[in-house]
Specification:
alpha/beta; 9-stranded mixed beta sheet; 11 helices; 329 residues; 35% helix
């Protein structure tokens, strides 16, 4: 019996066992203990090789057990404080949520700039140089987490399970996530994939301009969860809804999922509206995002059979609205 075949058979047996125990229907990715809140720490990674500082906000689980790690990369003009609803929930569910801030494409781009000039400043910052800086930020942060995890007396000492790392991001952060978790880069001549990443969530993914989808995403060999909306168009860049929907069909099968939220705009994955938004924010969008992202981390970072059964079964429909679209392969 070959190893891949054994893994498929064993995985099916786990799912069957989970259902037999009633674990599938009982699994609830939104359930959290409300007694102790996650601990929030602000730190800075000093990347001496690039003379660069990378600010972090880390949400640590309340208990002291070793936690899988879920990284998050913000969108253009964002900060480590953004999308706190994700970090707080993931940490409450037992993940160490590490939110990066990328100098050069963070809030420094627009802070202090006259309102009429901010759009031009943002567009200027959405460049290849900042993109490459972001990719190296991810590896630098993972290197530092390894050092902190081994440092006696550090708040992270022995707290992180660095064999179970997930990467995620929104918009420019989704582009960052794609690049470090399996996307091919035509003409680059090098790979930016970090092999320490086991699974990835992309909020507002996109097909790079003039790229071939099959060539770009056809070799992604780790689980990916894509989330977008039927009105997910950013005010900067040329990623339209078609570009976002082009990613999933190009992915090879095996642990690949896509959620398309009805009437969700680009800001649906953040905590506040963006200039130009026209739709009223739907509270169920965040509920669905939290449920599906948590089940995905549980399934693929924890190897949780009940979470996998929920994710691959009817669980997602229990948190989605009728016109939301969900598919997997």
């Amino acid at each position: 019996m070959t190893a891949p075949f054994f893994r498929v058979v064993f995985g099916f047996a786990l799912l069957t066992f989970a259902y037999a125990l009633g674990a599938g229907p009982d699994y609830d990715p939104l359930k959290v203990a409300d007694t102790v809140a996650p601990k929030v720490l602000n730190l800075t990674v000093q990347d001496a090789a690039r003379s660069r500082e990378v600010p972090l906000r880390v949400y640590l689980p309340p208990d002291a057990t070793r936690a899988p790690v879920a990284l998050f990369s913000h969108g253009l003009g964002g900060t480590r404080e953004g999308s706190a609803y994700l970090g707080l929930h993931w940490a409450a569910r037992g993940f160490a949520a590490v939110f990066l801030q990328h100098p050069g494409s963070d809030s420094s781009v627009w802070a202090g700039v006259p309102p009429k000039e901010r759009m031009a400043a943002m567009q200027k910052a959405a460049n290849a140089a900042n993109f490459l800086l972001r990719l190296r930020d991810v590896s630098a942060v993972l290197d530092q987490l390894e050092r902190w995890n081994a440092a006696e007396g550090h708040p992270f000492a022995g707290r992180l399970d660095l064999t179970r790392i997930g990467m995620s991001g929104h918009s420019f952060g989704a582009m960052t996530t794609q690049a470090v978790s399996g996307q091919r880069h035509a003409g680059a001549g090098i790979s930016f994939t970090d092999p320490r990443i086991r699974a990835a969530i992309l909020f507002s993914p996109s097909l790079p301009r003039r790229a071939n989808a099959a060539q770009t995403f056809g070799a992604v060999n780790i689980p990916w969860l894509l989330m977008t909306g039927t009105k997910d168009v950013a005010p900067i860049g040329d990623a339209d809804v078609a570009s976002r929907l082009a990613v999933f069909p190009a992915l090879p099968p095996g642990g690949k999922y896509e959620l398309v939220l009805h009437n969700a705009e680009h800001s649906a994955f953040t905590e506040r509206p963006l200039p130009g938004d026209t739709e009223k924010r739907n509270p169920n969008h965040h509920r669905a995002i939290l449920a599906l992202s948590t089940a995905f981390w549980d399934a693929w970072l924890r190897d949780d059979a009940a979470a996998r059964a929920w994710l691959d079964g009817e669980g997602p429909r229990s948190v989605l609205e009728r016109e939301d679209r969900w598919q997997r392969k």
